[in-house]
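Batch job 17 of 40 flagged for manual review because the log was empty.
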Amino acid sequence: RSPATSLHKLAGHTNNVVALVVTEGRLYSGSWDRTILVWDIAQGAPERLHTLTGHTDFVRALAVADDRLYSGSSDTTICVWDLTQNPPALLHTLMGHAGDVHALVVAGDRL
C-alpha cells in the first residue's frame, strides 16, 4: 500500500486549524486564530475567497445547513452566517453558554 499523497496545501491561518466543513464546492476552516476561512474547492487548485471574523477567541466547531454556516467558539458564542451573501454575512451571535462551544450539530431545523 502506498502512503497518501497531498493534492494541495491550503495556507492562510496563522494558528492551528481545528474545525472543517465542506458543502457545495466550498471548504470552511476554523482556527485558533479566531477566523474562518472560506475556500473554493470546486475546480482545480483551491482558492481562498474570504476571511470571516466575528469571534473573540478560538473557533472550535463548524456546521452547515440550509444556506447557513454555524461557528462555535471559546468565546462561548455561536455565530450564524448567511451563505447566500458574498462574502457570507454575520446574521446573529447566539449567547448563553457558560463555556467553550466545542461541537455543533444541525438536525432538521434545530441547532
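Reviewer: the log was empty due to a logging misconfiguration, but the result itself is present. The mean pLDDT is 93. Unflagging and moving on to job 18.
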